[in-house]
């Protein structure tokens, strides 16, 4: 048995209670039955359910069937979920694998569920037996697979010693690899003077470099002149089964996700975007390097190295070697382009356009003449009305259809993705080429996904995500138009007891009845949201605010009468809190926090008597707020810090033409499940006081390193990330190990991590802190002195502390242009830093005038709202990862 499998078996053996609790909760939440069995150790957990339920399941889920599922899994296999069928069509059986090192099987979750939709009307099954649906059963199985991988991965990490001693043999191997690399590069460089055809030279280079990198395939893609089609022109494979030349012959460039003009370095453990994941799966690629080769400022080739059916983590040395090979190919290409043009001939243009697989039309815009349409286009626009409309679009000069756009053919109800470009036709005249891709199904799917994303699956009300967007829009409108709105949050009293008394199915029926009744109140119809298990939010917008008292009475009256559940009457009370906007606040997250607090207060003051209470400043005392913050923060940290989101504010390099983004500063934000959005100035001082800044800071460090590695791999190897370290973190004896672990786990180049520290750390033992910073720099990280100019500023700190970047505090920027001292301070610090070969970053740039003044000095980095606010990771990557 391998070491990791022994660790897992040990964990399973000594953590039966933890596994049993995990299983019981999962079964109750998903209305199914489970038990866990070991490959060699027999039953691990008990059946999750009552005696009657266990007897019923044992009749349908025989020992033979359970053994068949366990034996279906094989060590090293890719399959983690298996499905079997029994005598009853409504019985569903699954197994989920628990794997150790080398994917060996150490245990299996056995899952059983009843498909309520398939149970015959004439078959009696006790109401105590849980029922689910095929869709819920599938989702639960998928979730269990993910939880299993994450759960045991964490156990392995905490139970296995990962550091190993370095050996002399490892150093010898490194020297031998470097010598071998130099020999390979020398052989490749000799080919620059070869008289052989480019194709032969490229084949030789791919063979040498592919064998050196130990990949399964190396190939060159050529991009056609019009940038639409691409083709493999040279290929080397370790074995013919890895060849892709036939499969990727004359394909659309947009079908290859890496064809963006940017480099990509993708290891086996890299989290892939959807398009990359589909491409890698289709061609059995596990890892790849994709490098663009440019000629005359246009990407003409892509050099690609691929590993198939095997794991591979690319090293920095691998990437350097691949870029060296790209440079050689580029040099050869430049020398030969005049002798052997790689551009396509126009002679076969019309034949190509006829067989592209999309609708194509070529028009002379000036003469309003249609020169060519292929048969696919004619089939798309058979409807006369749609054809007349699209014919007019051909000659549009507004620029609306330049590039890519979506177009709706109104009469047929079809949607098309339209690409338009200006090219030279075969006779030399300028023409417009337009391609049409039918995306009707995609549009329909997008609408369906959007509806699902905004709806609560149980009640069909809008969900919390949609609620927050609607509330924010309404509050913003009220602020701008001098109107008023109100938010009401309702929390059902003792709903947990309702579930226990009536059962979860009947509890769900009660929630549906309440949701239907609330949404039936005409003045708030469509403005009722389910924001928690038994919590509802009602938005009384500006059009109905005059009826607020009436709406309150309607809601309260609903709970004065019994609800009918399973043909029985049941009384249910609720507590409701309210806030008004903009009277109580104008920030959506702050409003939601006050609304949550007011709802809790209403429950405290009037539980079990249908009580409504509105927010007042008298109730929002500092002491109560602090206790709530502390309790919520401790809970958030104990739950793994998932509530603490990392935002990214771009860093701008003004020393480069175009002032591009060169990375970001990672900033922590707290979106509390209990209190809503908490601003940094509220929770960071408290986190430092409680010592919780240490786990929170480590969470931010790990997240930031993972994202920066992703940016580096996906087209931006120059991006760096700045992470703030508090004094409390720097005082920890293991701070060096924490940073090193974050780098190792993420695979981030240490040079792309900048650790920001403040001058307050110099107040104590300066020598000790200098020693800590030196050790962090020895890891390869950069050090930035943050908020320079405030607090304990001293020029001696610049001389004493091992720093690479000085960040000038925003307090010296806000008065630039009116305060001579501020500009003199920026000038002095930037000149000193320039002399000492340090970078200078100016924070708090909010105006063009501030930017212009700073740009006159020796400053190379800027940051502030003038360029962008701190962004969620998805928004940052959408905007800057292009």
Low-confidence stretches: 1-15, 159-171, 338-348
Strand order of the largest sheet: 24-25-27-28-29-30-31-32
Mean pLDDT: 84
Major pleated sheet: 8 strands, mixed, barrel
Helix content: 40-55%
What is the CA-atom radius of gyration, in angstroms?
A: 32 Å
Instruction: Note the overall shape.
Output: globular
Beta-strand fraction estimate: 15-25%
Number of helical segments? 28
Structural class: alpha+beta
> What is the first-to-last residue Cα distance?
47 Å
How many beta-strand segments? 32
Overview of this protein structure:
The protein is an alpha+beta fold. Helices cover 42% and strands 23% of the residues. It has an 8-stranded mixed barrel, surrounded by 5 helices. It has a 6-stranded antiparallel β-sheet with strand order 8-7-6-11-10-9, sandwiched between helices. Helix 27 links the parallel strand 31 (839-842) and strand 32 (861-862). The longest helix is centred in the first third of the chain and has 26 residues, at 134-159. It is globular, with a radius of gyration of 32 Å. The two termini are 47 Å apart. Mean pLDDT is 84; it is low at 1-15, 159-171 and 338-348.
Keywords for this structure?
single chain; 882 residues; alpha+beta; eight-stranded mixed barrel; six-stranded antiparallel β-sheet; 42% helix; globular; disordered N terminus
In short:
The chain is of the alpha+beta class. The chain is built from 28 helices and 32 strands. β15 (414-424) and β16 (430-438) form a beta hairpin.
Topology overview:
Elements: H1 3-14, H2 16-30, E1 33-38, E2 42-43, H3 51-60, H4 63-72, E3 81-84, E4 91-99, E5 105-114, H5 134-159, H6 168-190, H7 198-213, E6 217-223, E7 229-237, E8 251-252, E9 264-266, H8 274-282, E10 285-295, E11 298-308, H9 316-336, H10 349-354, E12 359-364, E13 369-373, H11 375-380, H12 384-394, E14 403-409, E15 414-424, E16 430-438, H13 440-454, H14 464-481, E17 485-492, H15 495-502, H16 504-519, E18 528-530, E19 535-540, H17 548-558, E20 563-565, E21 568-570, E22 574-581, H18 588-606, E23 611-614, H19 622-638, E24 644-653, E25 661-672, E26 676-678, H20 680-690, H21 693-713, E27 720-724, H22 727-731, H23 735-746, E28 753-758, H24 766-778, E29 782-788, H25 795-800, E30 805-808, H26 820-835, E31 839-842, H27 848-855, E32 861-862, H28 873-880
Parallel strand pairs: 22-23, 25-27, 27-28, 28-29, 29-30, 30-31, 31-32
Antiparallel strand pairs: 1-2, 1-5, 3-4, 4-5, 6-7, 6-11, 7-8, 9-10, 10-11, 12-13, 12-16, 14-15, 15-16, 17-19, 17-22, 18-19, 20-21, 24-25, 24-32, 25-26
């Amino acid at each position: 048995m391998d070491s990791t499998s022994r660790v897992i078996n040990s964990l399973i053996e000594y953590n039966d209670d933890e596994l049993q609790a995990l299983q019981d909760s999962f079964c109750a939440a998903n209305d199914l039955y489970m038990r866990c069995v070991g490959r060699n150790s027999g039953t691990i957990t008990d059946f999750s359910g009552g005696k009657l339920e266990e007897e019923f399941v044992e009749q349908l889920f025989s020992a033979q069937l359970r053994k068949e599922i366990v034996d279906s899994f094989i060590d090293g296999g890719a399959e983690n979920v298996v499905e079997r069928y029994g005598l009853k069509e409504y019985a569903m059986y699954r197994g989920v694998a628990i794997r150790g090192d080398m994917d060996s099987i150490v245990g299996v979750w056995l899952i059983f569920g009843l498909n309520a939709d398939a149970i015959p009307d004439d078959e009696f099954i006790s109401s105590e037996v849980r029922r689910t649906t095929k869709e819920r059963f599938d989702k639960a199985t998928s979730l269990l697979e993910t939880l299993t991988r994450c759960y045991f991965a964490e156990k392995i990490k905490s139970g296995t010693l990962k550091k190993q001693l370095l050996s002399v043999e490892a150093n010898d191997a490194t020297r031998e690899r470097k010598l071998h690399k130099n020999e390979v590069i020398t052989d490749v460089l000799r080919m620059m003077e070869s008289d052989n055809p480019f194709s032969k030279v490229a084949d030789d280079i791919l063979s040498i470099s592919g064998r050196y990198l130990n990949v399964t395939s190396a190939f060159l893609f050529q991009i056609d002149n019009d940038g639409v089609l691409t083709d493999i022109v040279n290929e080397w494979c370790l074995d013919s089964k890895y060849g892709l030349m036939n499969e990727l012959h004359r394909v659309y460039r947009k079908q290859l996700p890496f064809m963006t003009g940017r480099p990509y370095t993708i290891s086996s453990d890299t989290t892939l975007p959807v398009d990359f994941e589909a491409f890698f799966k289709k061609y059995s690629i596990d890892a790849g390097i994709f490098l663009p080769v440019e000629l005359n400022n246009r990407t003409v080739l892509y050099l690609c190295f691929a590993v198939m059916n095997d794991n591979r983590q690319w090293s920095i040395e691998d990437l350097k070697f691949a870029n060296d090979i790209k440079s050689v190919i580029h040099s050869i290409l430049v020398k030969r382009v005049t002798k052997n043009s790689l551009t396509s001939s126009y002679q076969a243009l019309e034949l190509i356009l006829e067989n592209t697989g999309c609708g194509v039309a070529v028009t002379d815009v000036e003469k309003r003449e249609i020169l060519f349409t292929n048969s696919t286009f004619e089939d798309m626009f058979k409807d006369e009305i749609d054809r007349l409309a699209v014919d007019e679009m051909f000659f549009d000069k507004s620029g609306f259809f330049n590039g890519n756009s979506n177009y709706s053919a109104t009469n047929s109800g079809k949607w098309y993705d339209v690409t338009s470009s200006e090219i030279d036709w075969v006779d030399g005249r300028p023409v417009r080429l337009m391609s049409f891709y039918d995306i009707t199904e995609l549009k329909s799917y997008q609408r369906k996904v959007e509806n699902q994303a905004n709806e609560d699956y149980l009640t069909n009300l809008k969900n919390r995500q949609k609620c927050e967007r609607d509330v924010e829009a309404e509050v913003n409108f009220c602020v701008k138009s001098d109107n008023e709105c109100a938010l009401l949050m309702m929390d059902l009293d003792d709903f947990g007891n309702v579930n226990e008394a009536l059962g979860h199915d009947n509890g769900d029926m009660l929630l549906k009845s309440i949701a239907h009744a609330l949404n039936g109140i005409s003045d708030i119809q469509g403005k009722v949201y389910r924001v928690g298990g038994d919590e509802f939010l009602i938005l009384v917008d500006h059009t109905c605010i005059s009826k607020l008292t009436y709406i309150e009475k309607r809601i309260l009256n609903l709970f004065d009468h019994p609800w009918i559940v399973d043909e029985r009457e049941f009384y249910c009370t609720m507590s409701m809190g309210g806030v008004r906007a903009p009277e109580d606040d104008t920030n959506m997250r702050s409003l939601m926090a006050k609304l949550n607090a007011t709802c809790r207060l209403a429950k405290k003051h009037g539980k079990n008597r249908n009580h409504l209470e509105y927010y007042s400043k008298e109730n929002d005392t500092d002491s109560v707020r602090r206790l709530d913050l502390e309790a919520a923060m401790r809970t958030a940290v104990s739950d793994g810090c998932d509530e603490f989101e990392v935002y990214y504010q771009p860093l701008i390099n003004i020393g480069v033409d175009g002032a591009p983004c060169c990375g970001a500063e990672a900033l922590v934000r707290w979106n509390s499940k209990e209190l809503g959005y908490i601003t940094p100035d509220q929770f960071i001082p408290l986190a430092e006081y409680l010592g919780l800044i240490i786990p929170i800071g480590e969470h931010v460090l790990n997240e930031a390193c993972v994202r920066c590695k992703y940016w580096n791999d996906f087209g931006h190897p120059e991006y760096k990330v700045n992470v703030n370290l508090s004094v409390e973190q720097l005082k920890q004896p293991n701070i060096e190990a924490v940073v090193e672990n974050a780098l190792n786990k993420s695979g981030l180049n240490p040079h792309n991590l900048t650790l920001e520290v403040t001058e307050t750390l110099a107040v104590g033992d300066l020598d000790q802190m200098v020693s800590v910073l030196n050790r962090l720099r020895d890891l390869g990280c950069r050090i930035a002195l943050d908020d320079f100019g405030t607090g304990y500023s001293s020029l001696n700190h610049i001389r004493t502390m091992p720093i690479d970047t000085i960040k000038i505090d925003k307090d010296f920027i806000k008065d630039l242009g009116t305060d001579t001292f501020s500009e003199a301070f920026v000038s002095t610090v930037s000149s000193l830093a320039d002399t000492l070969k340090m970078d200078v970053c100016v924070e708090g740039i909010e105006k063009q005038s501030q930017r212009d003044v700073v740009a006159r000095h020796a400053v190379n980095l800027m940051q502030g709202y003038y360029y962008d606010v701190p962004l969620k990771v998805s928004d940052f990557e959408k905007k800057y990862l292009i």
